[in-house]
Here is the input.
Amino acid sequence: MKYSKKKSGEVAAGDMTPMIDMTFQLIAFFMILINFSEADQDDRITLPSSELAKPPDAPLTTPLTLQLTEEGKVIFSGDMVPLDGLRPLLLREKQVLDRQEGGAAAATIIIRADLNAKTGEVQKLIETCQAAGFEKFALRAKQQST
Amino acid sequence: MKVRKNREETKDPDLDMTPMIDIVFQLLIFFVMTFKIVTLEGDFDVKMPRAAPSPQAAPLPPIRLTMQADAEGNLAGLLLDRKPVPDFATLRSEVIALVGGTDAQARAETEIELDVDYQLKYQHVIGAITAVTGYVRDDQIQKLIERVKFAQPRQPAG
Here is the structure.
């Protein structure tokens, strides 16, 4: 009787080696591309797009990200606060920054506002930050391929 | 000739790869789940110091861009120094006519002030800033006005 005895250690479903190779390729691909640092891109905000939006040449020295939703609420460090409740948080940041060189005036506030947000609210946000001592602002837009 | 007797004489099996493949799949699922495609973002710089700056001798006085909105927040009108402009493309050519011919230093000191209705949707403001700060030619960005600031916010309508 002819029977083929499986060699010990051989997997039952045929040769799996190419599949394992492809799996390793996929892992290497995702490992290289993975980017943990985009915590500031909150998905509740859709940025307006602009053909001139290009990432800054040098990374900003002291960036502080504020996100403004369509309804006019501000997201700061992951928490959603109304615009009025923002001032104490900003003053706290200013105190931390004042211990560093340059202080709050050297920090840049990155404003990520939803494209349907009211511009008056963006202006009020800028005013609140100015009252807390910040002077440099960056309005963020996403890159639009022309 | 190597003769295999019954099972007693078989060697230990070769290294069993199944657990390694399981872990590899776990890793792959982890990386696939945490993969996020991010769109590149860029910034427009706006410097607005709180202290009202004493007007320096700029070669051109600050240009004023007024943007009017309807009740929904859509763009209803554009006025460049009181002159109505139909769309952003015309706005850009007007700005090029104003500052395109000057040298880089004079251009760098030109300021534009945005006077915007409260309820105007933010995307229109970004569109206006895009139109006045530069244009793309042959894949290069040519700068126009570099200093942008906002005027006082208007009172919300209603």
